[in-house]
Amino acid sequence: VKTIGLPDKAVVTTCAYCGVGCTFRAEMRGEQLVRMVPWKDGKANRGHSCVKGRFAWGYARHQDRILKPMIRARIDQPWREVEWDEAFAYAASELNRIRDNHGRGALGGITSSRCTNEETYLVQKLVRAGFGTNNVDTCARVCHSPTGYGLKATFGTSAGTQDFDSVMDADVILVIGANPTDGHPVFASRMKRRLREGAKLIVIDPRRIDLVRSPHVEASHHLALQPGTNVPVLTAIAHVVVTEGLADEAFVRERCDWDGYLDWAGFVSQPRNSPETLEGVTRVPAADLRAVARLYATGGNAAIYYGLGVTEHSQGSSTVIAIANLAMATGNIGRPGVGVNPLRGQNNVQGACDMGSFPHELPGYRHISDGPTRALFEEAWGVTLDPEPGLRIPNMLDAAVEGSFKALYVQGEDILQSDPNTAHVAAGLAAMECVIVHDLFLNETANYAHIFLPGSTFLEKDGTFTNAERRIQPVRKVMSPLNGLADWEVTQGLANALGLGWSYTHPSEIMDEIARLTPSFAGVNFAKLDAAGSLQWPVNEAAPEGSPVMHIDGFVRGKGNFVVTDYVPTDEKTGPRFPLLLTTGRILAHYNVGAQTRRTENIAWHPEDRLEIHPSDAENRGLKDGDWVRLASRSGETTLRALVTTRVAPGVVYTTFHHPTTQANVVTTEYSDWATNCPEYKVTAVQVAASNGP
Ligand code: SF4
């Protein structure tokens, strides 16, 4: 502040890190950002913030940013800087060549959950209308795609049911597979306030997260389950609800499919699903499972919050469904203080999913095979759309290795670092003829790129993000893009080089198009957003001011749908060679693969990823705190330092994935969710041994 001087202007905008979506006043002096002040009128944060949003914005001016487009014919050649027009023309000629030689199925794109709704919408439009394929996916594939599947199957739409304020009406808060203190800190503070007022807390997590015991907050129950056993834990809880007569049958009869409920109740009440039978699998004492079931079902308003510890499993979709079943069976849905709430990791993962970034869905979660929906988009875009779903990210990589997938446009995502089984990702990228990376930095994926298109930060663009509570919030330009173009303009440049003739002059026009084509966004426009500050979808004729709580009088799909979720153990097994189970997560100071936060002063707070290991497991291996260890799995190995702690149970180890020097995903497996291919990051059989360091 001293060197830049006092601010002379300010713009209110939205944080680009996590799914809480805090509002900030960005205070500027000329084109220099002086400070980010949490904005008191922000409905998601009410004047609060965390260390990422408040301090970790220095990456926007970091020397590593690439500001000129670059091209090269082969990845072993040096980059050549070019002007934007040449980069677009070269990209279009390569895409056209590959489409002519190999067909449109050889092309695909990946959108970013960090970009705005408008930018994400344009990428899926470019792939569908320009590339001529539904091979479009988003990084939600590796985080919350099971939420998309599970909540759509049960409730009819893929979104959290409540606003954040709703937690203040909860009597029982059940947190499963989430670590809000690190992952969603501002919402965690609100949750803790409610807990200090007397609400009861249940934590289901293999690790003793901070929320289990922090100043003035202590969980009534912490179920430290064996990694990979979410489904049997939830089934055992459901068994108690049904067999002890704790279900809200009046609610179920009125609001849900009764026959489906009877099928589900018959399944969960079988003796094989009792807490006593399942405690050997889950390693959770039956008495604790029974106590948690009684508290959740009879403790008043009960709200469930979950994160990637639910979704990133081979049974991720089954777990989301099991959570929804439990909420419906106990009537904990459709009013403040209850509900099913996925805590979204990235700032706009909700929005990326809303905007049709999946290979099977157009914006608004409408299946690509639905004729009337397709006709609506065909008329608006002036193209014929393929009615068949396209390839997901892992399928694109598999097809590349097999030789049928040749060209990929990746916007704002470092798939080499963030996706599972790094060696397989590298092999897929290396096999492609044209990889276009659109990003702020030359990330790990860019090592395999032929075309690099510089990206812009959230400070350099207008648009909207949608947070974990479906709140659409304005992103407002604070400074001009250093690279000359905002990301939506880059995608438009690429589209026009392919002959699409787009003529958007401002992101508000893109939102107007989204609103025309997407019923849940029908009442959204920039003027209304600026006046209201934010709007929670659905925003339409029935709810012109938005919808803080969903499914009040009826589910989006009509009757709530119970789906039986049987337990299928993961194929990833421990054994003599790989005796420990690795699970992964995040830390407060960093965000995802750290591309942004590692380029800020936050690096000092968490300069390296560490391996948490229980004292008994450390002693067995002759390890002390801070020792270097070799972490190996069937996929690969890496080296990092040990953190000896009782946070993890014996037999379980844990690490973060913020640093490319560690590359935690070198060791994760190729197993994934049965319904969505979301990777099973949370369960990897590993061995740990002393090492001399990298
Ligand atoms: Fe808020 Fe999340 Fe940004 Fe922190 S990272 S300031 S909690 S939106």
From TrEMBL:
Top-level taxonomic group: Bacteria
Q: Name one GO molecular function term.
A: molybdopterin cofactor binding
Residues in the signal sequence? none
Q: Outline the extent of the 4Fe-4S Mo/W bis-MGD-type domain.
A: 8-64
Location of this fragment in the whole protein:
231 to 924 of 947
Starting at the broadest rank, the lineage of the source organism is:
Bacteria, Pseudomonadati, Pseudomonadota, Alphaproteobacteria, Sphingomonadales
Return the GO cellular component terms, semicolon-separated. membrane; oxidoreductase complex
Alphabetically ordered keywords of this record: 2Fe-2S, 4Fe-4S, Iron, Iron-sulfur, Metal-binding, Oxidoreductase, Repeat
Q: Which family does it belong to?
A: In the C-terminal section; belongs to the prokaryotic molybdopterin-containing oxidoreductase family.
Kindly provide the name given to this protein in its UniProt entry.
Answer: Formate dehydrogenase subunit alpha
Which terms does the UniProt entry file under GO BP?
A: formate metabolic process; respiratory electron transport chain
